[in-house]
Write a structure and sequence with these properties.
12% of the residues lie in helices and 30% in strands. The protein is built from 2 helices and 10 strands, in the order βαβββββαββββ. It is elongated.
Length: 171
């Protein structure tokens, strides 16, 4: 039996599946992002509407996943102050992700050491994480002995004043 395909675009996919089953047609679903067609609705079919198909044929339904993920170039913010970096990230349509502080010899305190993602493209609205300098690591100072309140006791070598009664000079 030959069937002329209807135009299923902009129809909810579950209703379209039901109709195709009732017509004796099989189907496969392929998802695609679409800015016009709402999520879960048919964008197009293959074969196209108006085509004649036989009972048992397989129709491919292209179903919207919703808006396309728009990608933009990630701004390079290494070397910027944290305040300027945050402004730049938000102006370009991204969000500020985690901000971690680390010591750095090369980058001044309060300035961005690194970012993730580093460069290239990322989905608009995604987060950019930063590592910000805490400045140079302070030198590690060995612990100092507490100040003495009394002069250190000198070992007593006087045999007559020895507490334990032994003569330290005796052989």
């Amino acid at each position: 039996k030959k069937i002329e395909l209807n135009d299923y675009s902009n129809l909810e996919v579950n209703g379209v599946k039901e109709e195709l089953r009732d017509l004796g047609l099989k189907f496969t679903v392929k998802e695609m992002a679409d800015n016009e067609v709402p999520k879960g609705f048919v964008v197009s079919t293959n074969p196209a509407p108006g085509s004649t198909v036989r009972t048992g044929s397989t129709i491919t339904l292209y179903v919207s996943t919703g808006e396309t993920e728009i990608k933009r170039n990630v701004p390079s913010i290494v070397g910027m102050s944290l305040e300027d970096a945050k402004k730049e990230i938000e102006e370009k349509g991204f969000k500020v992700g985690s901000v971690v502080s680390r010591y750095s010899i090369d980058i001044a305190k309060g300035y961005v050491i690194s970012q993730s993602p580093e460069n290239g493209e990322a989905v608009l609205g995604s987060a950019i994480s930063l590592v910000v300098s805490k400045g140079e690591e302070p030198p590690t100072v060995p612990p100092t002995a507490p100040p003495a309140t009394e002069p250190p006791v000198q070992p007593n070598t006087d045999a007559t004043n020895n507490q334990n009664g032994e003569n330290p000079n005796a052989d």
